[in-house]
Design brief:
Dbl Homology Domain, Chain A, about 0% strand, disordered N terminus, guanine-nucleotide releasing factor, guanyl-nucleotide exchange factor activity
Length: about 350
């Protein structure tokens, strides 16, 4: 087989959850997705109306998510008097549980910025075709639904564990059952599927976004306007994607710290250990599925780089053509450099 000469370097099309560095990917530009450049491209876009019902509902939603999570830590939320009644391990355990809930709230906020600000404004602007919205924001709706469910369960448990006589003090005695519920059964499968899809496609989406924003003045102006929205806090699409990708890798560290400060002879200790096992298995399966997607993408890339007339005759006499590379269920098993020596 004879590869076509090309100056383009292969680009990774996905992003494993164990890696924090996103890679740009090349995508063919579909016609009609973004508006064509015109003399109007230099004009300012219409200002974003934060007073409409959409943003009013979003602000109320974000405030609801942040309720009882206003402080930076559990210790600062409950005050020194209550802390004096607990030992060091108990205080540390509550601090880490609070950190888990607080960071989950921030994660949900990031997903809502992508869905309810960026996607919302792009749809309104008509700069992007509806058919391509999912490719620009791969699986964001699914991830938001999953993590909103998780956050809601954590906050319900928080409310259930309020100390009698003081609604501002809560002491969570059991958490592991919520983790098991989120990372097993149907929900667990959805977590694996959601993150596998997002991590496999997010680099393509970011690469496509960066390519388009360089060539479209209207889009540049719109993104600048969105950056000024206070809700966004200057989080761009690539930054949001990176935060979303990293989130699932944070759970093991947080849960391990909770376990370290939990009595080993308690029921919650056993539940936490099971939850940690499920979380690690979820990450492993996501990485495995992303790896398979990478192999498929690389095989398609090799196929496109080969000369159309490339072929080889196998030992049994059959002719193997370029098209045969992607026929059926063929997968890329190994990729290495081959050196040919001529005598």
């Amino acid at each position: 087989v004879t590869p076509q000469k090309s100056n383009n370097q292969p680009a990774s099309s996905s992003h494993r959850v164990t890696s924090f560095r996103p890679s740009a990917a090349q995508m063919d530009e579909p016609e009609g997705v973004w508006s064509k450049p015109s003399s109007e491209d230099s004009e300012a876009t219409k200002p974003i109306n934060l007073g409409d019902s959409h943003y009013a509902e979003l602000e109320d939603d974000l405030k609801s998510d942040a309720q009882n999570l206003e402080k930076e830590s559990w210790s600062s939320a409950v005050g020194p008097n209550y802390i004096k009644s607990l030992n060091k391990e108990a205080v540390k355990r509550q601090d880490v549980i609070y950190e888990l809930i607080l960071t989950e709230m921030h994660h949900v906020r990031t997903l809502k910025i992508l869905l309810n600000v960026y996607m919302h404004e792009l749809k309104k602007s008509l700069l992007v075709d509806e058919a391509w919205m999912e490719q620009l924001f791969p699986g964001v709706k699914v991830l938001l639904s999953l993590h909103q469910h998780f956050l809601n369960n954590l906050k319900v448990r928080q409310t259930q564990c309020q100390v009698e006589g003081n609604s501002k003090i809560f002491h969570i005695t059991q958490l592991g059952d919520i983790l098991i519920n989120q990372f097993s059964g149907t929900l667990g499968e959805q977590m694996i599927g959601g993150y596998s899809y997002f991590c496999s496609h997010q680099s393509e989406a970011v690469g496509f976004y960066k390519e388009q924003i360089q060539n479209n003045k209207k889009l540049q102006n719109l993104i600048k306007d969105i950056d000024q929205v206070s809700l966004v806090r200057r989080l761009g699409i690539p930054e949001c994607f990176l935060l979303v990708t990293q989130r699932i890798t944070k759970y093991p560290v947080l849960v391990e710290r909770i376990i370290e400060n939990t009595d080993a002879d308690t029921e919650d200790y056993r539940y936490l250990m099971k939850g940690l096992e499920l979380i690690k298995d979820t990450i492993s399966q996501v990485n495995s599925q992303v790896c398979e997607y990478d192999k498929g993408a690389r095989l398609r890339e090799i196929y496109l780089r080969l000369d159309p007339k490339s072929h080889v005759r196998l030992k049994d006499g059959r002719l193997f053509r370029k098209e045969d590379l992607i026929q059926g269920s063929r997968t890329l098993l190994c990729e290495k450099t081959v050196t040919w020596k001529t005598s």
